[in-house]
Design a protein that fits this description.
This protein has nine helices and six strands; from the N terminus they run ααβαβαβααβαβαβα. With 241 residues, the chain is an alpha/beta fold. It has two domains: 55 residues, no CATH class; 114 residues, Rossmann fold, CATH 3.40.50. It has a four-stranded parallel beta sheet with strand order 4-3-5-6, sandwiched between helices. Strands 1-2 form a two-stranded parallel ribbon.
């Protein structure tokens, strides 16, 4: 696949365009790095699912010691980037970014909101798991992640609950319930063109949902968050080549 891209220098200086072209050409260097991925599961003491603020902090308290332990295989300094696989303003993101020499740390909520803010042509909303997340996610977006453009144009439409627990989202018997909630709430009531699948438990369902709602862009935060992490880590690695 070949992408046709346009780079615009909005001033009249050809020399500036030439400099931009040289920088863009250097993007080829980004493809020089292979990568491998290590996966960490929360240790004993971490909740089996994260369904609100209390379990978010429990999971942070359980995971952070391992990530800070130089003897651990998950020690944060061993890695060029870290993705926190929970769709929330998870406390681990802030806890890690506050550490000395932390690599890029990407959260699923902020990377997803940044992505949909690039598209001022249509409104966006979230479908999440249990109803407790609605108020939490809306408050986080309003306080920390909503751009001025999205706010001014009313493009952010808020969060909808699927009324299912995290571990119920991938059950085949619940797929119809998810479809109906998206149809009634995200699409018909909120008029969303972009629907963020606001829980890691939705991961992979975007392909089935796209067949039912071909006019909607479904954002999988895991895929988007990992691409964001990979780009950020590669960019920093290139600085040291």
């Amino acid at each position: 696949m070949v992408l046709d891209l346009l780079v615009v220098n909005p001033n009249s200086s050809r020399s500036m365009s030439d400099e931009i072209a040289r920088s863009v050409a250097a993007v080829d260097a980004f493809r020089a790095f292979a990568f491998k991925t290590t996966y960490m599961t929360g240790p004993e003491g971490a909740p089996p699912q994260i369904d609100g603020e209390e379990t978010s902090h429990q999971s942070c308290d359980a995971c952070l010691p391992l990530l800070k332990d130089p003897e651990s295989e998950y020690f944060y300094k061993r890695y060029d980037g870290i993705l926190i696989g929970c769709f929330s303003d998870h406390p681990l993101v802030e806890a890690l970014t506050c550490l000395t020499d932390a690599p890029p740390v990407v959260g699923l909520l902020n990377s997803s909101l940044s992505f949909v803010s690039l598209f001022p042509s249509g409104p966006s909303s979230v479908i999440t798991s249990n109803k407790e997340w609605v108020e939490i996610l809306d408050a986080s977006v309003e306080k920390k992640f909503l751009t001025g453009e999205a706010r001014a144009r009313g493009l952010w439409k808020g969060t909808v609950s699927s009324n299912l627990q995290v571990l119920e989202l991938h059950s085949e018997e619940n797929f119809g319930k998810i479809v109906e909630r998206i149809r009634r709430e995200n699409v018909e009531r909120l008029g969303s063109k972009y629907v963020i699948l606001g829980c890691a438990g939705f991961s992979g369902l975007q392909y089935k949902l796209k067949k039912i709602f071909p006019e909607v862009i479904f954002v999988d935060p895991i895929i988007l968050g990992f691409q964001t992490l990979l780009s950020s880590a590669t960019f920093l690695k290139c600085q040291n080549v």
